[in-house]
Amino acid sequence: MAGNMQRFTVILTIIVLSALPATAAxxxxxxxxxxxxxxxxxxxxxxxxxxxxxxxxxxRSLWIEIHGLSYAGMVSVEINxxxxxxxxxxxxxxxxxxxxYGGIGGGFPTLKVTLPLQEGAxxxxxxxxxxxxxxxxxxxxxxxxxxxNFLTSDSTKVFKPDAFKEEDPNTxxxxxxxxxxxxxxxxxWQSATLTASGLEDAPRIRAHCSDCHAYDGRDLKYFGYxxxxxxxxxRFHGLSTLQGQQIASYIRSLPxxxxxxxxxxxxxxxxxxxxxxxxxxxxxxxxxxxxDSDTATLPFVFRPKGDxxxxxxxxxxxxxxxxxxxxxxxxxxxxxxxxxxIPISLQLPDWNHWLxxxxxxxxxxxxxENSEFSELYGSTDYASSGGRRAPRTSRQSxxxxxxxxxxxxxxxxxxxxxxxxxxxxxRRALLKPYVERAPVEWSPxxxxxxxxxxxxxxxxxxxxxxxxxxxxxxxxLFGSSGESRTWFNAxxxxxxxxxxNIPDGPSGMGGSALTNEYFNASWYQLQVLLNSGNHxxxxxxxxxxxxxxxxxxxxxxxSRRPEPARLxxxxxKAMQSTDPRIGPEDRAQGWRPDQSVNPTxxxxxxxxxxxxALSREVRRAITESLLSAxxxxxxxxxxxxxxxxxxxxxxxxxxxxxxDISGPNVWDATPLFTAANVNPEVxxxxxxxxxxxxxxxxRFQYSPKSPARSRETGKRF
Length: 717
Fold this sequence. Notes:
Elements: E1 11-14, E2 31-33, E3 35-38, E4 44-51, H1 53-56, E5 59-67, E6 75-79, E7 85-86, E8 93-94, E9 110-116, E10 125-133, E11 142-152, E12 164-166, H2 179-191, E13 194-195, E14 204-205, H3 209-212, H4 218-222, H5 227-236, H6 241-252, H7 298-301, H8 319-325, H9 328-331, H10 360-364, H11 366-369, H12 372-377, E15 382-385, E16 388-391, H13 398-402, H14 407-412, H15 415-435, H16 444-467, H17 475-478, H18 491-494, H19 513-530, H20 545-559, H21 564-575, H22 616-634, E17 652-653, H23 670-675, H24 680-699, E18 708-709
């Protein structure tokens, strides 16, 4: 993309046939989406549409699905020769669930908004919609209109689906094809001097493109960033248009697939994801599987039988079919619920929100440069490797270890987990002087540096995992009971702001408690998707389930939007995290009913708001099935195996406001289970088992130690 981008304009046209009925418009030539608006302040793209006069008179609003609308005043829209309207939470209505997470300026990377229009704003015949990128905040360099439509007063869409078509990244070609340009692009990617942002007087930074992205740029190819967006971002960081085109040419030439798109959150769960090659997993199931409501997840957890089990009917299953599918088998601790195939209403962060805002080298200087954290990844210098340049490695670096011919043994022995843990501990050691000193004076700048360091590790973990093809090799370590695709670390959970004590409020991510908690929840959710333990949980690793489940309360406190279905998926995975072959005498890895979240969560007063969205019958069926599955697992072992002479357990309790949902005394909730209309036979089983458990505990002189209060942060990760 050459020349001045200040008034970069794209014109797309929809031709509506005037002979059509005035109930829906049909395009002559489909519009290619997205409409990408990237570049300097003031960059504009436009779409031209034609609408019959009778239909134009009925238009009352413009509906837009927009990616990257991250702050008020960033985007303006103009219809024909009307006034430019700046988009913010007052000028548009934001659809749920994005609205509950802050709307414009909140956590969701992609939002659906509706802009009211004055009568007569849309005319019969030709209409021009203009989208303008008003100004950067020092982070953004544009946005994308993923979909749009005019709406009538009853919210009927004017244009039919066949009026639009999706752009295919596989048809893109590099701006330059000659070897000299590709080499120049690669060298620029690895070593060009950059400025921090597109703001005036932005300082130069030490990091290069390859330092914050995958070192070879594969992430831009994989997630389908266009040539125009790469050029615009290059200019944003102080390079020329020509240099941006050379970088885009290099990226386009990489021998990696392009299954993702910038707006589709990595690893977003949804049906059919496991049927794709493991190489496509990171691309996620797409925004189309981000559900409008949390309860829409239920049919995918409790799958109706018969015809309703087929897509797309499952999402429309009546409540009676869902209730019939709620059985103890779903909650069975020895089972293996697949969260990768279960869509949720929480939109996970897009790739832009994986990328660090500041590189650790620019954040901490020599402290990072000379750290074990940096050394374990590989030097920030580059070495020639087979005609390409790669991070300089040593035998001790994670890259050097994974590049060894003994990778299979490294995986099957479990040593790969230890190496990733060492790297995580090194990151913790680097940040400790900054985030754990007493007292820490938190500021947006300190929080940004600490959080960016976590993000840097996450991006590099993705880079390493992709380069060495690790995602499909979990069963070499975990066996057939393990996940078919997995990560070998807990780095996603370690990315949560709370993992380094970043507080809610002005110093938190997004400058608000709500957005800070959104990112906490998102990275914890990603951990559940990528590595929930593979039935090999040990103590509170790789997931501290009590802390993670308690985080649902923290997010609800800010959003006031309960997520019972997503919570249930997490609860089931927590129950299924232990090895079914190991009994309760193994306190680190075996089934310990007193050391995790128990069925009382369904009847505990503190958690009642989380389940208000469920009907009484659905909630009853879930409570009864969860309790039954928990009891069935307990009864699998003779009571004597739960106790060891001379040993007692440290009970691990959540903060008081989370309620008492862990520990051994589930039988204390018997009246609550009865009040919830749980089958009396199940309640009687609970009473009998509890009485026997208590009697054996007395013979062993067993009593749990005083509860240890869980920490307010995720430092365990």
